Amino acid sequence: MKDFLLHTPSAIQVIPLARLFLIFLLYSFIGWCSEVLYVGIFYEHKFINRGFLHGPICPVYGFGGLVVMMLPEKVQASWITLFVTCMVLCSLVEYVTSWQMEKIFKMKWWDYSEHKFNIKGRVCLLNSTLFGVMGLVAVHFVQPFVNSMVYKIDDTVTVYLADGLALVFVVDALLTIHKLIDFSMTMAKLKEFGESLRERYAGEQWFISTSIADMFASIKKRAAVERNKFSDSLMQKIDSFNEHRFDFEKFIARFPRVSSTSYRESLALVKHRFAERVAERKAAFAKKRASK
Hints:
- There is one protein chain.
- The chain is 69% helix and 5% strand.
- It contains 10 helices and 4 strands.
- Strand 1 and strand 2 form a beta hairpin.
- Helix 1 (17-41) packs across helix 2 and helix 9 packs across helix 10 (264-291).
């Protein structure tokens, strides 16, 4: 299938998939910019790559943009109908994406539980309203701009450009999925290791089991006094789990509200290590400024 059908005010327009993919990427890039500005600049007051991928795109916005494009002419013609439709459809896309990612990786990457009128923390009225506004902006202002950009490119160039960007997109997606799977598997292994430590040292007075970080700290403290009671493999395993993982902490930086009912303690350790890294960077920066 090389073409895609799209409703337009005049007729049903046939869009080649190469151009459709470029439109998808443009909406994904626009969505990424919106996330960076809305979350990174206005809330965190710093640049944060809010996408899962390495590249500057958020595919969920690309899919949302295509969904809005496919709306019938009657829906697009009425601002109120378009607003409500975009609220519902884009919220559905966000809800399904959140549910699927939690099902696959056993983690909830964003959580709106603190917002009023939310549904299981996956979507909330505030974001849904913003989706409605963005739908209006997309149809009446962004789409004409996107079309003008995409259709200015020669057909042959469009195919080569789409193929090249598709290759980059697939490689980026595969690398990201690999890291997400590694993240999830490490959280599972850390959970299992923590449970084994509790079973092994639960009767010891020196053992603190309130969190995985406390368990590791108490064992290392005890090992400094009675090293012969702890095997080298055990201490190496603790050190490997206890070390800073830049790739994991990068996910925490992008999604600070990430949570998990399955890996709550494991995730808490990664967040703790990330907080340590941030504190170390701030201290080093303050020291550097003081020395000038």
